[in-house]
């Protein structure tokens, strides 16, 4: 085989994909698995919207099948702009945003556009595992700011300030957070925005879960530092079409123009069919009611899982998530290693979670559990199985042989 | 604004996008434009297939909306493998191919996977304009092999051999070709395959138009050098869903695994809805009849355009295209510069073509015209307008003032 790229080694099998592979095998063996590992919604987009799209499929208009502008269709960008104003009070001109093939392309194109080798990027710890391989690929140095579960994973702006140096190119904020479910408060957002202006770095603000908040509200960093914020967004969580690959980025117009060109080279344009569904959804009378229903449903499931954890894993440490889809539990009282525990729990007890090490250098005895994929009674059963897995864990100090 | 990447300057507004922008303006001014610039089909996928997908949209199964494996769904990869065997006699194991978010992602992920800065990549001249910015971005040196219209743009293997050196990482073949419509013969394909094995370089084989052949047949390079060929494919031209962003790459398994990981970082997975449509299409009884109908339709349109060119642009030089969607015409007898002529033709005469300079350093007085987007009577009108534009061209030696 002729040679390959030296940089591409940064890319390894995604951690959740490894869990998925074991799940696939257990599925073939027809074993029942409680899936607490999935980072995707269980509620599809509103039926009316799907019906409308289904009808359009029958027309012979090539428009639905044709390429779109690489920035995304104008009508969709206008609808997104209106939606940001209505749901968040944020003013984003349709020309200051570009539509992407999912949040993943939004992330990749953003860092492709801003990074030079040797730049430093500050990540929280824990944080979403998707950032690390991209930053490594572009030759950035990752600097971590630790968050403490005991403080509710609150962002410590002073600790962040200490990490900012002359090579700091960007700080990544994920709120509502994956994996902790914490929501950054408006005071912290303002303080980071001031710091970004003062020290001239980008805030890459991952707002994938902005509509999934159970207590509190979302603070939009763009409001406080429009020249420094690149906001990453997705339609994967709301309205719930993760496989359809649609997201968007907004920020300073000049930068957005560059990100658009990066996306054009990567995928030419965002999927036209997905753009159409998103437009029908944002313009639908169902839009707000859908979010309300989904949030209520997920909140009830979260509460069910919290109750079940308290019952079956009474020594688990966790913060009640105020947003997103996940609870991040420290199982240090039961286990000594989250990675092998996750495999053990899946293989022996039929419950899938994601190990804490995928998100953190600090919480290696933690696991991430999603409360939105399975219905309440199966969330309870999942917690019961996790309790069983913890009890049978080889390193469990209190394990009954 | 904090700084941006130094490498990203390789990305500029795509040439066809610039033509599109003028077209958009003329559309707003409600001027009729004959579109010979579009590189996309005018026939949507079969109605039965669209109807089946529309019905699935009404189900509440999250499967249609969920993430898929980053390599694409197993059933789709099996269907693609079967289809390659049936339509081309090529044996490709479903594990030796990865599904991508369109041919563009296939191209980008391929070069991301194989290139190191300073590598040389050999492109034909003329060739598809999409390769240059990607190669420049990854720091490759582009080496060109000229093709002559007088020889029917036939690939001269001896000339290619002279350009192969110790730094040659890949040779890009596009057949059926964009922009010339030429089809590389089996002897040339075999000779390049032998050379690739002998000199150990990759053949990046762009087979986007493999089903759109009007005379002759497609030679599959993979058949002759399976360890050296990376085959780039798309569902944009067949069945005609360019905006839905779906393609695939096949080649040596180890490399495909790497390209899959690159795609996973870029877009996480190919669009699930598009995968579903492609699967329904490939498994449909309509599949072969659809291709036959489309090829007949496009052949008739091609013939109409050829006739009209002979009538309205009798001094245009061109080869009758045997495949793809385009004719590449040298208008050197009428004009001195294809770029300004294309703008002139669009602005003053309402006919859109793509300048030859986008594809070639040699044919700067040429233009590319698509014969598949407009119906026959409008192709004729388009040629008439081109003739008028040529007659009114300021640099035209025979121009009547």
UniProtKB/TrEMBL annotation, chains A, B:
Gene3D superfamilies: Type I PLP-dependent aspartate aminotransferase-like (Major domain) (3.40.640.10). It holds the Pfam family Aminotran_1_2. InterPro entries: Aminotransferase_I/II_large, AspAT/PAT-like, PyrdxlP-dep_Trfase, PyrdxlP-dep_Trfase_major. The keyword Kinase does not apply. GO terms for molecular function: pyridoxal phosphate binding; transaminase activity. Residues 32-371 form the Aminotransferase class I/classII large domain. GO terms for biological process: amino acid metabolic process. Its cofactor is pyridoxal 5'-phosphate. Keywords: Aminotransferase, Pyridoxal phosphate, Transferase. The keyword Cell wall biogenesis/degradation does not apply. CDD domains: AAT_like. Belongs to the class-I pyridoxal-phosphate-dependent aminotransferase family. Homodimer. PANTHER family: ASPARTATE AMINOTRANSFERASE (PTHR46383). This is Aspartate aminotransferase. It comes from Thermocladium modestius.
């Amino acid at each position: 085989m002729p040679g390959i790229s030296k940089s591409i080694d940064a890319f390894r099998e995604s951690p959740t994909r490894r869990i998925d592979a074991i799940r696939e095998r257990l599925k073939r063996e027809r074993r029942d698995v409680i899936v607490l590992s999935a980072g995707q919604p269980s509620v599809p987009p509103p039926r009316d919207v799907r019906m409308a799209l289904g009808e359009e499929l029958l027309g012979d208009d090539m428009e639905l099948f044709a390429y779109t502008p690489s920035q995304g269709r104008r009508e969709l960008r206008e609808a997104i702009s209106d939606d940001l104003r209505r749901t968040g009070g944020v003013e984003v001109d349709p020309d200051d945003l570009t539509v992407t093939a999912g949040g993943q392309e939004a992330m990749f194109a953003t860092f492709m556009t801003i990074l030079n080798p040797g730049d430093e990027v500050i990540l929280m710890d824990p944080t979403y595992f998707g950032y690390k391989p991209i930053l490594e690929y572009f030759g950035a140095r990752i600097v971590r700011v630790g968050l403490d579960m005991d403080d509710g994973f609150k962002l410590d702006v002073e600790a962040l300030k200490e990490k900012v140096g002359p090579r700091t190119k960007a700080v990544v904020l994920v709120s509502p957070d994956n994996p902790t479910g914490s929501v950054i408060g408006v005071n912290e957002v303002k303080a980071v925005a001031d710091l970004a202006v003062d020290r001239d770095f980008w805030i890459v603000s991952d707002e994938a879960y902005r509509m999934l908040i159970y207590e509190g509200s979302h603070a939009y960093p763009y409001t406080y530092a429009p020249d420094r914020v690149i906001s990453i967004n997705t339609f994967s969580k709301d309205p719930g079409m993760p496989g359809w690959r649609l997201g968007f980025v907004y920020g300073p117009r000049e930068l957005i123009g560059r990100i658009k060109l990066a996306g054009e080279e990567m995928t030419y344009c965002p999927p036209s069919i997905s753009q159409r569904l998103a437009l029908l959804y944002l313009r639908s009378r169902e839009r707000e009611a859908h979010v309300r229903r989904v949030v209520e449903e997920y909140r009830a499931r979260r509460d069910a899982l919290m109750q079940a954890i308290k019952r079956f894993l009474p020594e688990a440490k966790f913060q009640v998530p105020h947003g997103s889809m996940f609870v991040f539990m420290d199982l240090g009282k039961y286990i000594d290693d989250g990675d092998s525990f996750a495999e053990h729990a899946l293989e022996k007890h039929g419950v899938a979670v994601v190990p804490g090490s995928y998100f953190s250098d600090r919480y290696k005895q933690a696991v991430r559990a999603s409360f939105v994929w399975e219905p309440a009674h199966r969330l309870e059963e999942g917690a019961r199985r996790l309790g069983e897995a913890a009890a049978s864990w080889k390193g469990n100090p209190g394990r009954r042989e």
